Amino acid sequence: MIHWIETLNTELFADLIKGSALILFVVISQLIVWFLKLRLRLRYAHATKDLADMDEVQEVSLAYFRRRQILDVVRALLLLVTVLLGVLFYNIQAFSFLALALGAVVINQKENINSIIAYFYLLSNYNVGDDIGMTGNFGEIVRISLFHTIFAGKDENGEYNGKRITIPNYQFLLNPTEEQNLKADTHRQIVMDIPFSAEIYGRSFDVFLKELRAFLDELLPKRNLRQVGSYRGFAGAQYKIDIDYNAMGTIVVRLAFISRARDAVERKEGVVTFLEGLKSD
Q: What's the start-to-end Cα distance of the chain, in Å?
């Protein structure tokens, strides 16, 4: 009897040591990750304090969020390692009650469990900085955590709209996502509808169209396959023109061309300025 009690005490002491070691491992590892994230946040604040160029701000911000994402992944892996060590250290039978409790948690926290599963799917398919759209929300991924993903909202022109969008991870398993090209250096298609009236422009349509083509030939460069992004139909072309009538019977010239996002407004401004100049002739 005494020997059994001594053996039991020895096992309890050993389990206590193992449990204390696991707790110490969790505390130290999480403190290290917290310190690294704090250090990263301070560096980011210092690096962006005097930046005025939006491209530089975006580059520094993406680097910050990507490093922060790495720390989040490390944190999740450390917790996973802790659970595995606990299973190895202790008798598996001791976890029977825990397994039952875990089953109840899975039933009551189905969405959170699905979000954790989706977390690993997101890590393997998306990166911080990717532009995607889902359920009517568009934006740039800035963080993928265990339970939710955070977007920095953008409009269709790639401009940040000031929105912070949080989507539960499990939604990515239920809804289709659409990859977007909303970066300032990506190519996009610009479409402009130009109504024509001989009275307004003071010239016939064929003369107007000839002058418009001559202007566009000087304004827009001819692009190769690498300079059109996903719009391969524009490879080797400067622009495309289509002509039709609208519901009022007015001639409408549809102009389409490829431009980098950062240059799109300037290109459109050049076209509008030219057209308004024709009206005043």
A: 112
Residue 190's nearest CA partner among 240, 153, 246 is 240
Residues in CB range of 162: below 8 A, 6 or more apart:
153
Which among 111, 105, 116, 37 has a CA at the least distance from the CA of 80?
116
Q: What is the pLDDT of residue 5?
A: 47
Which pLDDT belongs to residue 171? 87
CA angle 195, 200, 202 (to 5 degrees): 120
The structure's pTM equals 0.49
- For the chain, domains (ranges, CATH) are 2-179 (no CATH), 187-280 (3.30.70)
Which residues does the chain have with pLDDT short of 70? 1-22, 48-58, 83-110, 156-158, 180-185, 229-230, 280-281
Cα–Cα distance measured from residue 257 to residue 189, given in angstroms and rounded to the nearest whole number:
6
Instruction: Give the per-residue pLDDT at 91.
Output: 53
Strand partners, 157: none
